[in-house]
Specification:
The chain has 42 helices and 13 strands. It has 928 residues and is α/β, with parallel strands linked by helices.
């Protein structure tokens, strides 16, 4: 049929095999209401009431016209206009089409045919076709009082059709296939006596009279407690006949055993939480557009993430869509206690479940797979393959024709199945924090879930469902004091994996991770074990390549294998992470390396970061780092290349957390020269990003390191840098003694470069504390020194500093002359930082001398340069100044925008005092 409409699930139009979403929820509601009364008029007022209820809004009629018009516009195929239409008649709207195009009416027609059939096989086929039309809750996602009531009516129709189908199968001797579905239905309908009748009869015929009598007694108790009645006469009679082992209850001879309907799914998981997106993705592939191959979905994820949980949840939700049965196999792909299951053995069990006899089974796997595909042809069967190791284990178990659905769970992404079988891969991650808390609360009880210790326990399980289940099992029944100890053990990385062990190989995270590790080939397995030496969760491909002594191409291939095994993930191009608990496992593995291996790989990692940080620093400060001691060369490390300052800053931003961990390694291992190198290389980045306290702590440690190295020159230069870092943070009283001490040391040693830079630094500090007269002699000494050294960049920056001090003393003409002398030199040497600072000084002078327009232009020049070099610290101050100048010019809107931008930057940088000042300025301006 080239047109079709679905109501038994999502309300959808199908035109020539393509599903068309019928618009907004209310528009789909209108379509559903017209389809329920297909080929019969429905008045506009009736539609309004059924869509909106009694409280119909004033413009509802206009909306209804619009919905009908949009629905008619969905007839995009040239033949659709002839196959269906919505007409407006005096009696109301009519949707005209063949009623068999609507799944609801096909369902009713098939059920009616089944009930009237004289041939049981024909009746069974009709029931199976009818029930397969149900794709979920009718009118899924739509809500109106009328539809909600009608949905209940349809649910009752569906239930009665299922029960008639089950009764037919019981009469055909198919009780073996019915025990599980009837047990599930009895749980859903605990007071339905017809369900209980069929369930008891199936149990009795399975040779389980005691279970049948227990089911009766449980129902009787529920009826008495909830309704105050006993079971009806029919059920009481069945109970009596079971008690006396009535021969008439014996199962009839089964017909058609060659077409058994297996129901092999394990029980539906209890306490299922979340996974809406994964369930949606599993729903999506149904009904492939090409119609040529069965659907295959792989649920992939790390050990303990809940793959089987999700697969069984989806399978039970959709079991009715597969009327010919459900097959299930545990493949033991990563079992720590069993070998991976041979696909030939699985095929033997599947074939016998489908009706084959032992004598019919081929001896080889290939022959069994061919027979399996033959027996699956033309049937609608769900196949669940749990814990697959690789694609080779799965391929023989795939049906060969449409109509079947296969769900595969694996710790391997099985990407080759996408190529060989068109599989969809659903990657399963950890649970979000909220869903983790809900799952844990279900396990331990909502009344205890709010206890502080339990909240900590949830946190340290890091969203892994199996970890949460194990922790909940430990927590169950423990008093508060013991819970505190459990939380403490989980908080401690050295004992966390010990706690997350329930005493069974299938419930021990360490054992499960080890099984995944053991499944790797030798080289990826070796690299995975080495990752425990990498100090940070987020690491780049370039760093890893140097760390494992492989080129980037080879490293990328190895990491792809680990990704495929769901042991790591590439969360951004070229950057890798692993789960916290997996990381604890690889850290344990790293302790088994020899001291020589640990030292070799650690030094390679440190060397990569030292060399690359130095290279990035040279790009950020090309005119300054050449003067910085000590010589910064690390043999064997090839640093990355950076095209410009933005690229260098981007690398520092991406690697900042890693660099902090590497700095910690150099401290812990006493690699003091490397520590000093990193401190020097990170200085400009920390300054531009406003990381003042981090910078100061590093320089203090570097000063101690230089003393331990017994390097007087390094100590003096480091002390000078410490003074600069303190001054940048506004801690001028602490900065001056260090700068004075460095100055004395350079005077004693005759080190002109150090002496010059220290005079420059002292001048800048005196400017910051408004001691401009005291700054000028230091600027003069620095100017002489830079000229003697031939350092034009240092000279020009000193000229600008002198200009600023003169301007602050009110000597604007002289200050401006110094700046204008500095600017061409800075431009020649392409010193962005110096140009920005000089334009900032010129902007100040222009503002103070009443040249507001010139001041704004100069300030914009400074801002552009600070932005170009990524100096967010000075950018914030310049936005604030620009706002002041725009306010002077009478442009209040522009001023507020500039101040608001400054406020955002101050907050980002943690500069709370400046942020408060800016917020007050904005508030005052708003009041005026």
């Amino acid at each position: 049929m080239s047109i079709g409409f679905t109501l038994l699930g999502n309300v959808t139009i199908h035109s020539r095999g393509v599903a068309v979403t019928a618009g907004s929820p209310r528009q789909r509601c209108v379509l559903a209401l017209l389809l329920i009364d297909v080929n019969r008029p429905v008045s506009a007022q009736t539609l309004l009431t059924r869509v909106w209820g009694d409280d119909v809004p004033p413009r509802a009629m206009t909306s209804l016209y619009s919905y009908v018009s949009r629905l008619r516009a969905l007839r995009s195929d040239p033949g659709d206009a002839e196959r269906w239409d919505i007409l407006r008649t005096p009696a109301g709207y009519v949707l005209r089409t063949d009623s068999s195009a609507v799944d609801l009416f096909r369902f009713r027609s098939l059920v009616e045919r089944a009930r009237g059939a004289t041939d049981p096989r024909e009746a069974e086929a009709s029931y199976s076709q009818a029930l397969a039309l149900w794709r979920g809750e009718p009118f899924a996602g739509l809500r109106s009082d009328w539809l909600d009531a009608y949905r209940l009516t349809l649910a009752e129709e569906h239930l009665r059709a299922r029960l008639d189908h089950y009764e037919l199968l019981l009469n055909r001797g198919r009780h073996v296939d019915l025990v599980q579905p009837l047990a599930a239905l009895a749980a859903e309908q605990p007071l339905d006596e017809q369900v209980a009748h069929l369930h008891m009869l199936a149990l009795y015929r399975m040779g389980q009279p005691a279970a049948a009598l227990t089911a009766y007694e449980q129902l009787r108790q529920r009826l008495v407690e909830q309704l105050g009645v006993d079971p009806g006469p029919r059920l009481q009679e069945l109970h009596h006949r079971i008690l006396v082992f009535d021969d008439a209850l014996a199962a009839p001879a089964a017909d058609g055993v060659e077409r058994r309907t297996p129901h092999q799914l394990p029980a539906s998981p209890s306490g299922f939480i979340g996974r809406r997106e994964a369930l949606r993705l599993l729903d999506a592939p149904q009904g492939r557009a090409d119609g040529a191959a069965p659907d295959v979905s792989v649920i992939a994820g790390m050990a303990g993430v809940g793959k089987s949980w999700l697969a069984l949840r989806w399978a039970h939700q959709h079991a009715d869509e597969f009327p010919d049965g459900q097959l299930y196999a545990q493949l033991n792909g990563f079992s720590p206690s069993a070998r991976p299951t041979d696909p030939g053995d699985v095929l033997r069990l599947f074939l016998m479940a489908l009706g084959a006899t032992e004598s019919e089974l081929p001896a080889d796997t290939e022959g069994r797979a061919a027979l399996y595909r033959t027996m699956m042809a033309g049937r609608k069967i769900l196949v669940v393959l749990d814990n697959a190791r690789d694609s080779a284990q799965v391929v023989p178990l795939l049906p060969g024709t449409p109509g079947c659905r296969t769900l595969v769970t694996s710790r391997n992404r099985l990407s080759s199945l996408k190529v060989r079988a068109g599989a969809d891969v659903v990657g399963l991650g950890v649970l979000p924090a909220g869903e983790s808390a809900r799952l844990f609360a279900r396990r331990v009880g909502d009344d205890r879930a709010a206890e502080p210790a339990l909240r900590d326990i949830v946190r340290w399980c890091a969203g892994l469902p199996l970890a949460l289940d194990i922790a909940a099992a430990h927590a169950d029944g423990l008093p508060c004091a013991s819970l505190d100890q459990l939380a403490q053990d989980l908080r401690d990385p050295s004992t966390r994996l010990d706690v997350l062990d329930a005493g069974d190989v299938s419930a021990s995270l360490r054992v499960l991770f080890a099984a995944s590790h053991a499944a790797l080939d030798p080289e990826p397995g070796r690299v995975f074990g080495l990752l425990g030496l990498v100090p940070h969760q987020d690491v780049s491909l370039d760093a890893l390549a140097h760390f494992i002594e492989r080129d980037p191409t080879r490293t990328r291939r190895i990491m792809r294998v680990l990704e495929e095994a769901c042991l790591i993930r590439q969360h951004r191009p070229g950057r890798y992470q692993m789960h916290d608990l997996v990381r604890l496992y690889v850290e344990e593995q790293a302790t088994g390396l020899t001291a020589g291996q640990i030292d070799r790989h650690t030094r390679r990692l440190v060397g990569f970061y030292v060399c690359t940080a130095q290279a990035a620093h040279r790009v950020l400060e090309p005119h300054r780092t050449a003067q910085d001691p000590p010589a910064l060369e690390v043999p064997g490390a090839a640093p990355l290349a950076f095209d410009d300052a933005q690229a260098a800053l981007a690398w520092f931003d991406a690697e900042h957390a890693c660099l902090q961990e590497v700095v910690t390694i150099t401290e812990q291992r006493g690699l003091w020269l490397d520590f000093c190198r990193l401190t020097w290389a990170l200085h400009t980045f920390r300054w531009r990003r406003g990381l003042f306290e981090e910078s100061i702590r590093a320089w203090y440690t570097a000063l101690d390191a230089a003393a331990d190295l017994d390097d007087a020159s390094l100590t003096a230069h480091t002390r000078q840098r410490l003074g600069v870092a303190l001054a940048q943070a506004g801690r001028y009283d602490e900065a001056l003694p260090h700068l004075d001490a460095a100055l004395e040391r350079f005077r004693a040693d005759g080190g002109l470069a150090g002496l010059t830079r220290t005079h420059h630094s002292l001048a800048e500090v005196h400017v910051r504390i408004n001691a401009y007269e005291r700054a000028l002699p230091h600027f003069a000494r620095a100017l002489e020194g830079y000229r003697e050294l031939g350092d034009q960049v240092g000279e020009s920056n000193t000229l600008n500093g002198t200009g600023w001090a003169l301007a602050r003393l009110g000597r604007y003409a002289s200050g401006e002359a110094h700046c204008l002398q500095a600017l061409p030199l800075l431009q020649v040497h392409e010193d962005g930082e110096g140009q920005a600072a000089t334009w900032d000084t010129l902007a100040y002078i222009a503002r103070r001398t009443g040249r507001t327009s010139r001041a704004v232009d100069a300030c914009r020049q400074a801002l552009a340069h600070f932005q170009a070099i990524g100096n967010a610290n000075r950018e914030a101050d310049t936005w604030a100044s620009l706002g002041d100048m725009q306010a002077d010019a009478g442009d209040g809107d522009a001023a507020r925008q500039a101040w608001a931008r400054a406020l955002d930057l101050y907050r980002d940088q943690g500069r709370t005092v400046r942020a408060r000042e800016m917020a007050s300025r904005l508030a005052a301006r708003t009041e005026h």
